[in-house]
Amino acid sequence: MTPPVSTEPLLEVRGLRAGYGASLVLEDLDFSMGAEAVGIVGRNGMGKTTLCDTLVGFLPPTGGEIRLRGQRLDGRTPEKIAGAGIAYVPQGRRLFPSLTVDEHLAMLARRTRAKRWTPAAVYELFPRLAERRKHGGAALSGGEQQMLAVGRALLLNAHLIVMDEPSEGLAPTIVDVLVDVVHRLVDEGVAVLVVEQNLRAAVRMAQRQLVMVSGRLEAEFSGAELLDRPDLQSRYLGVGGADRALR
């Protein structure tokens, strides 16, 4: 007999509140997603990075729930959340300048035996990293650093990967590589949450787009609709922001 298909979301966020001191940034934020790619777009200062930091435990929430595969994660440490199945590709990459590519991956390689993602699999995905494996993080180009940041996250073999501004400052050829990686992950059953300022890159990675306004998810559109509607771009990304987003 075929087992019943679960209808429970992979990630479920309900009434999430978070901020810094007395400043509330996320206000009763709600969304859910399955094993899919979902984009979050919006103007600067709307709380997108705060959401990322709260999901992965860098910023403790002040209210609400975060559940991954039904398991409640809000309030847990980043280590516990990573162990439960959420990996993070942070804005700015946050690599160690003096550690080589090999050393970055070795830090997470201990528990990858017999898993989908190992250092060898990362090098197969990103041949350029294999060529630069003895170079320190500071000696890598921006594109190579982003490949390494993604490869490091893959070694957690997570159920969900959160990417904050993955295309920032990258050449179009590197963005192409990242788009292919996101599609591959989704095909393999991994969820990817993409926070992006570059609307065209966001839409190439995820057709489902959530728009953040003042700490709330205000609307949901398909990527095609956002690209075809300058009025929506102006309303939600700001006058002039749409042109930059479509670069």
Automatic annotation (TrEMBL):
The keyword Metal-binding does not apply. Gene3D superfamilies: P-loop containing nucleotide triphosphate hydrolases. SUPFAM superfamilies: P-loop containing nucleoside triphosphate hydrolases (SSF52540). InterPro entries: AAA+_ATPase (IPR003593), ABC_transporter-like_ATP-bd (IPR003439), ABC_transporter-like_CS (IPR017871), BCAA_Transport_ATP-bd_LivF (IPR052156), P-loop_NTPase (IPR027417). Keywords: Amino-acid transport, ATP-binding, Nucleotide-binding, Transport. It comes from the Bacteria. Residues 11-239 form the ABC transporter domain. The keyword Signal does not apply. Belongs to the ABC transporter superfamily. This is ABC transporter domain-containing protein. The lineage of its organism: Bacteria, Bacillati, Actinomycetota, Actinomycetes, Kitasatosporales.
